[in-house]
Specification:
Oligomer: single chain
Radius of gyration: 22 Å
Strand order of the largest sheet: 1-3-2
Number of domains: 1
CATH topology: Growth Hormone, Chain: A
Shape: globular
Number of strands: 3
Strand content: under 5%
Helix content: over 70%
Distance between the termini: 29 Å
Length: about 450
């Protein structure tokens, strides 16, 4: 799993990613505490608006950033975006109004929305081998899971000796460290995959989502994921500090419990996925998150119970997001993969754009228990939609016909086999020039 780190350029970029993630994680904890200081029990509303701004930036900026990345100097782009993010983090300790939070976070999130797809789009050029690229994607997921555990724990330890304002200094340092490792990485020249026409780079990923059944199911699961995650990220500070009257450290430890559950699932998943399909694993995670939200409305009346619920929620959360990269790889060619990952980044965050305001506004206007109920309904809807649009029979190799092609077309030479209904062949299918629509599935595929 760690063999991609032998590639010096990827190793530097991976360390840059980890540094930025740790900084972002501490900022997430500090932002929640800042919101509570500014708005008290209404912190959920402040957080909900701030995180909605994040989602708007991610949804609107990410596709364009990914499409434009091929035309810009990569290293200069990434370092500049890290510098902008570090500057914003350095200013955050000095805000005293909610609108100031919104303004600074807008700048930060726009920079992040441009950084992440540009970062992801260059990884295939660093690792030509498909197996190494797959491992690199797994490492990125592991880094994100570790961040969800390490950042709250680190924040909880630091909060015992410093104020939460100083956590933003750690965030700025993380971005500066990220920029330093990007500077030292030797990046390759642009590949053919990055010189596709601009419009295709911009819209190709969304087209794959529209036409590929498993990707439509993945998007439905993303809605369920956002519903459960939004309850944790928006309302933990309200539950812990306003409802239970506990400290800032207790908030950080509750978030760490969620991260611990996620990390546990991430460690167990490789073996699980040898026996279970991506669909069954992700739907099981969504069902688990729905169950936790329902239970939260009834039983989240004490800090120990919240910790238990958040551990289980984190477990379900990881089940829904970790296999996503596998589904994306199965659904794209190497040339279309950067556009598909950018589309996944934007569309999944569109789901968070729905969930974050719901979590914050319902909690502020009613109470966190009401937010549990509403988000349980949203999570359950995403789960049922995934079951409806993602076929249970989703084989790696699909037996299908090409009635629109001449019998001697060269594409039909790939895995051709006789079939009573005509010429058919079996191979992994993606939407491309030979498969403009998803073929009908046949149960006789091997």
């Amino acid at each position: 799993m760690f063999s991609p780190l032998r590639n010096a350029a990827y190793r530097h970029l991976f360390i840059a990613q980890v540094a930025a993630l740790l900084g972002t994680g501490m900022a997430t904890v500090a932002l929640g505490l800042l919101a509570h200081e500014l708005a008290g029990a209404g912190a959920g509303e402040v957080l909900g608006v701030a995180l909605a701004i994040k989602m708007i930036a991610y949804v609107s900026v990410a596709p364009f950033a990914s499409a434009l990345a091929a035309q810009l100097p990569r290293k200069t782009l990434l370092v500049s975006l890290d510098a902008v993010r570090a500057a914003v983090a350095a200013f955050l300790p000095f805000v005293n109004e909610a609108w100031q939070v919104y303004g600074l976070m807008t700048v930060l999130f726009v920079a992040s929305a441009a950084f992440t797809p540009a970062f992801q789009a260059m990884i295939p050029d660093l690792l030509d081998d498909e197996g190494e690229y797959t491992k690199a994607l797994s490492l990125s997921r592991l880094a994100s899971d570790l961040e969800s555990v390490a950042s709250p724990v680190l924040a909880a330890v630091l909060l015992s000796v410093i104020s939460y304002h100083s956590l933003f200094v750690g965030t700025a340092f993380g971005f500066i460290l990220s920029a330093g490792f990007v500077v030292t990485a030797i990046l390759p020249r642009f590949s053919v995959a990055q010189t596709l026409p601009f419009l295709r780079r911009l819209t190709g990923g969304v087209r794959l989502f529209v036409l590929t059944p498993r990707l439509r199911g993945l998007l439905a699961v993303s809605l369920a994921t956002a519903a459960g995650g939004a309850m944790v990220f928006v309302n933990t500070v309200v539950l812990v500090q306003s409802n239970f009257g506990l400290s800032q450290q207790a908030t950080a430890w509750a978030l760490a419990a969620f991260g611990g559950g996620s990390m546990t699932a991430a460690v167990l998943l490789p073996k699980t996925l040898e026996r279970a399909t991506d669909r069954s694993t992700m739907v099981a995670g969504a069902l688990l998150m729905t169950t936790v939200l329902i239970a939260g409305a009834l039983f989240a009346r004490s800090y120990p119970m919240l910790i238990v619920l958040w551990i289980i929620m984190g477990f379900g959360y990881s089940l829904t997001i970790t296999p996503a990269g596998r589904a994306l790889r199965r659904s794209s060619t190497a040339e279309e993969r950067p556009a598909l990952f950018a589309a996944q980044f934007a569309l999944s965050h569109a789901c968070w754009l729905i969930a974050y305001p719901v979590a914050g506004l319902v909690s502020a206007e009613a109470d966190p228990q009401a937010a549990f109920v509403v988000l349980a309904a949203l999570c359950g809807f995403g789960t049922l939609l995934a079951l409806a649009v993602w076929p249970a029979h989703d084989p790696q190799n699909l037996l299908h016909h090409h009635d629109e092609l001449d019998p001697d077309h060269e594409h039909l030479n790939e895995g051709t086999r006789p079939d009573p209904a005509g010429v058919a062949h079996v191979h992994p299918v993606v939407i491309d020039d030979n498969h403009r629509r998803w073929p009908k599935q046949r149960r006789c595929a091997p």
